[in-house]
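Class, carefully examine what follows:
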Amino acid sequence: MTTEPVVSTVLEMREKLLQELRSTLRPGQREIADWSEGRLAVSAVPGAGKSTGMAVAAAMTIAKYQLHSRRQLVVVTFTRSAAANIKSKIRAHLKTLSLPQGGFVVHTLHGLAWSIARSAPERSNLNPDAVLITPTQGSRLIRTSVEQWIGMNPTLYQRLLEGQQFDGEETERLRRQSVLRTEVLPALAETVIREAKSSGLAPEDLRNQVTSDEYDILAIAAGLYEQYQLQLQQRNFIDYDEMILGALRVLEHPSVRSRWQSQVFAVFEDEAQDSSPLQTQLLELLATDADSDQQNLIRVGDPNQAINSTFTPADPVFFREFCQACSLENRLAEMNQAGRSSRIILEAANYVLKWVNRTYAKEETAPFRSQMIHPVAANDPQADANPNPEGLGFEIHTPEDVHQTVEWIGKRAIALFNQFPHRTAAVLVRTNDQGRFVARELTRWFDEKLAIFEVGMRDRQSHIPAEMLSLLQFLDRPHSPDNLKAALSVFVHRRIIPAQDLNALIAFPEQFLYPAPLDPPQSPQVQQASRFCTSLLRARLELPLYQLISFLAYTLNYEQTELATADKLAERIMQQTRENSLTAILEVLAEIVTSERFEPVEAEDDDRYIRASQITIITMHKAKGLDWDYVFMPFLHENMIPGSLYIPPAARFLGEYTLPEVARAQIRAIVHQEPIPDNDQAWERAGYLKTAEEFRLLYVAMTRAKRLLWLSAAKQAPFSWSKPENLDDRAPCPVIPALKQQFQLSVIGEAEEDDVEF
């Protein structure tokens, strides 16, 4: 019996399914699905469906070229949640096509680099057991690097100390020493390490540059960078850039590189605008065919959504240049249709793009790539047409002050949820301080009427190390009133025990923990708190030290991702402690809490941010990749967007610029093979970079809205959000008057909003 008719039927059915899959794609998405070889750039507007298009194209590529576990498509994205999302989509399409799941892998960029580096530790020069860190300005690693540099470079340090207008007075000398050691040089070190290392520059690449500035900032930068690298090696630490460098060192060897390249059919990269030069170099190497030297690389991104370039080396100019090069080869596709937002919201976002480019374009470099967002066709295959707006869909408000702003937001959200309880809303703010203010005010006004979810520093800098430190300090010294209060505060916050007067409990710790028969009787709430504390103390005696953090995490009723983060923390501490004692654990944990950003394990979805009848308070940066039916954007003032570079008064003795920003601009000139600007020119470039990115951030935030985009700039707002009670007159973001004029917004009167414009 022949099997040829059966095989032919299966192939025909698969081809039919492939054509049906292709028919679901929009222009721009189809170019990825039709790709066969070489490089392809895809510039996609917000809401264009990048991940949807990439998932379909990936499944079609696997089917057409019969990819398998030894010849795979490599899909790269930037976050674990995004990787999980696109992986599940590809798997679903492969299941529909009746294909096995082995023809592709999905990695984060750093996950891919680490897997390559670990495959050959002798070539990567990385210890597989090295501790991964994310150093910050206040970390011990940076502080030690600064002190080592000062000791080795007394002449350069003295030049900084003298600065401008120094008369030799001892008090001023001591002040300047403190500022340099604790603020200026640590900030410079953190910026330079991130910029230079992610751009593939070594310390000597900076030191070899000749500059005419008065401090020789690049020489200082090179020295700090060099000391940091020495500290990494001595302590068996690695950072994220070291992973990329380690992978590149592995791939330097022709035979190893050829083996990796033979396993990679092509590379699909998402969010390409956020790649650093070093990361791009790694992907280009992997995507190169070992026999033909052809790069099979598809890069999908949007330079107009590049909102990390002022604190990472991910300059959108790199992806723009890639798009331009591919355009000359007729290998540029554009995803310019988006069905997420109503038409009026798209018009507002497009106008902001054009107005900013017209107003702020400088030296042939505009903040935005000129790419308009178009609504989808009425018969769009992926979704309904752009949603209908709520009311007019786009509003600009001018409250009297920031308090009235939040009041109006709360009233509007309640009215909308009463009418449409299944819909979603968010307040997008520029800073976490603003988010805390909004959460506090909404809670004060509408606590029982609104479900409020604040996404603050808890999501960007895990709260878990601090909670673990408080509990372990209590277990170490339970009779300390401060330790007891800190632990009880954690229990109250996590709703393990009822809220109560903690000061009364800690007045006599022994009596609280171990009440004697003659002591005054405890209330039920106090008894509950006391029993909980003593049960933890018993566990401390019965459990081995390495299990304590996991036990405490379960005790605090952590959710799944919090438990994973606690396990990650426990593993990290065990790696760093040289002796098995609670004192050693506390020392490492205190260092993590006070001077390092410990990144939590991410959830694989963003459902917690987008829930029906919930108003989510989130920063504009964190909101990227999310969307809501109603988006409120308050506090759009000129001093926030675009704002200006800030010179701390304490550091003005160095001049009218800051050393980190000057160094960043000079390093980017090296990367782009341009003349090194002097300090004043570099400061001006840094200011333009900030202005351009702030307007891109505004654009990204506006395009999160589906049905209603609500903007406001109160007449009075604080200069510093750390002191929100100090209000004074504030000018609006300059794009606000332009939008009012363009959309001919008029003032109307309402009962609770007597100055509402829409």
Observations:
- The first strand starts at residue 39 and ends at 44.
- Residues 340 and 375 are 9 Å apart (CA to CA).
- The first helix runs from residue 4 to 23.
